[in-house]
Amino acid sequence: MFEYDFMRSAFVAAGLAAVVSGMVGYFLVLRGQTFAGHALGHIGFAGATGAVLVGLAPVWGLVGFTLAAGIGMGVLGERISGRDVAVGAVLALALGFGLLFLHYYTAFATEATALLFGNVLAVAPGTIAALAVLSAVTLASLAAIMRPLIFASLQPELAEAKGVPLRFVSTAFLAVVALAVSESAQIVGVLLVFSLTVGPPATAQRLVTGLWSGLILAAALAVAEAWIGIGAAYYTDWPVSFCISVLSAAGYLVALIVGSGMPRSSRHTIDRATEGRPLQP
């Protein structure tokens, strides 16, 4: 299958998106904000359809809307993790606007289906270049806020008492999540964005307790599931997103069984973070 250019492009694009999704998703799961991350994907769908309606490339609408929504959610503060009803309302509204925009530009129906469910086999070389730049920006941004993010995620009250700006950290992190969701949506679609941003990180957190080992395992699992999913789709003619979703769910199920008796606390990392020493896995 590697003799085909489109297959090689698919593996490269999926690998880039998977690494970013696994690492960013690790903190998304740790902070209990997975539903907010899922909502960002749906908001991105509205942005993509709206961009096409005004003559822009859908990817710019996808990134722009998710980034704006992520910043908006972050401005609400740390309490966004408990506002499931509000996030759900925003999610439904975003889908409604997406359908409205699609109603006025029916020629976009095929691309809209790809946005909803993904179409990694149709990734163009230009899209790969954009994904590479977006991946670098996302990972660099995550690295810049990682230490206060760990502190705010594990011990928010103590972090606030020590002067960590929780609202800024929350806003910056959700902006990073928005970029990661924009990448993942182009591979598995906005409806299955959980496959890469939640499944592998949740699996990793069931199996290991260290920060760095968890991040590496989450990224490795995401890449493995994406690549195996593409290979399975090639030989079975099943949708790629379906294969990746099944692998993601199966991986978490196995982790639940294997890791049921393993300690899961990673709070030891916060002590070293507050002392200014390097975090240990």
Overview of the molecule:
The protein is an all-alpha fold. The chain has one domain: Orthogonal Bundle (ABC transporter involved in vitamin B12 uptake, BtuC). It contains 13 helices and no strands. α6 packs across α13 and α10 runs parallel beside α12. The radius of gyration is 18 Å and the shape is globular.
Gyration radius, rounded = 18 Å
CATH architecture: Orthogonal Bundle
How can the largest sheet be summarized? none
- Our measurement of the CA-to-CA distance between the termini, rounded to an integer number of angstroms, reads 37 Å
Determine the structural class based on helices, strands and strand pairing: mainly alpha
CATH fold-level label = ABC transporter involved in vitamin B12 uptake, BtuC
* Count of separate structural domains: 1
Number of DSSP E strands: 0
Order of helices and strands: HHHHHHHHHHHHH
Overall form:
globular
**How many helices does DSSP assign?**
13
